[in-house]
Amino acid sequence: MNVISGYLVRGLLIAILGLVVAACASMTDSESRQYQEIPPADFVGSPILGQDLFAGNCSFCHGKQMQGTLMGPSLKHEIYQSDQFSDQAIYRAIKLGVRQRNWRFGSMPAKAYISSQKAAHIVAYIRESQQQSGIR
Known about the structure:
Elements: H1 3-25, H2 29-35, H3 47-57, H4 59-62, H5 87-96, H6 116-132
Helix pairs in contact: 3-6, 5-6
C-alpha cells in the first residue's frame, strides 16, 4: 500500500468513527442503554438471582465470596466501590470483557452470552455483597 492510499484509508476510518460518535451522541438514554446492552433505567436487579448467576459465571475467577483468586481480582476492594467503578462499567466488563491493565490476572474475557437483565442481577449481588463488607 502506498502512502496516498494509506492516508485515504485512515481518512475513511476517521470519517466512519465520526459518524458512529455522532449517531451515539444523538441517542436517547433508552437507546443508548439498549445499544450498550444495559438494562432500562427502571429495571431492578435481584441480588438473590445474582448470587446464583455470579456463582455460575464469575466465581471461578473472582472467588465464591468475591475475595479474588489467581485468575481474577477481589471485587470487595475499594477500587470497585460504586463511586469509583460504576454499575455501567460492570455491565460493560461482563458484556465486552476488560483488557489487562495494571493487574497480574490477564484480560477478562467477554461474557456476551449473559443477558443485560442477568448482568443487572449480578451487579445487584456484587453491590449488596460489597455493602455487607463495608464497601459503598
